């Protein structure tokens, strides 16, 4: 597929998607989301790829869903056209995805980042869910994911006032995993992705699935799920290899089996 709104590359075992609508600060229109889904599906089915990084420009990761595209939508049009349904696919990605954020990460841009597994942010990042200022509320998971990341009090503050949060506040409240100098941000994200991709792919995917269970189940259920998945790992060759390599004081050679 020839992409118009994103740039898709691979760096060894890492897939890299760069959102590329500079004229609109990477506002997420339907065409871009469709392309992003296509790229993620490609990486998902490519056995060589172990992790994906999604990034934007220095000025904007993404300034939200495309306001110009949705301004005139009617309810019936958006209902029949399944508006925003395409976004869900991103959250269903089984291999890990890192959001490498610089500049504005607003509205749907923040919702996209929160669908990723790890957010690594540059010191220049600004986060907000400003939908309230447009006469709407977040519609791509923001009202549900943000409280899970940062708690109800701060999520209410951000969603009801629409204010922007800087990178250090975002790190303090647990929205982002790391804050990095602007010129080091993408390298830090790619290095984290390369590290993840160097491990056993099925084990990484099972770990991601299990951590995500913590968001959706009570502790006792989640712990039971964890135990099941943990025990199943002893049926993999990579568990045997990983532990044998430790005992023999050598680097493991994972074969994704
Ligand atoms: N949709 C469409 N176009 C956008 C956009 C968006 N979300 N954000 C920025 N742009 C466009 C601007 O319209 C402008 O285009 P023109 O040059 O054609 O006028 C261009 O990008 C550059 O933007 P600005 O001139 O506004 O740049 P700035 O540096 O002065 O301001 C900004 C930057 C503060 C991010 C400002 O652009 C802004 O407030 N953007 C909108 C942010 C927003 O409200 N996002 C939420 C969208 S709703 C949503 O996401 C719903 C959902 O939950 C799914």
Supply database-style keywords.
about 260 residues, alpha/beta, six-stranded mixed β-sheet, four-stranded mixed β-sheet, 12 helices, 10 strands, binds acetoacetyl-coenzyme A
User: Distance between termini?
Assistant: 30 Å
Spatial order of strands in the largest sheet: 1-2-3-5-7-10
Helix content: 40-55%
- What small molecules accompany the polymer chains? acetoacetyl-coenzyme A
Secondary structure category: alpha/beta
User: What's the tally of helices?
Assistant: 12
Q: The biggest beta sheet, please?
A: 6 strands, mixed
Beta-strand content: 15-25%
How does the overall form come out from the CA principal axes?
Answer: globular
Mean pLDDT: 97
Rg over C-alpha atoms, rounded to the nearest angstrom: 19 Å
What are the segments in which pLDDT stays under 50 over at least 5 consecutive residues?
none
Number of strands: 10
SSE topology string: EEHEEHHHEEHEEHHEHEHHHH
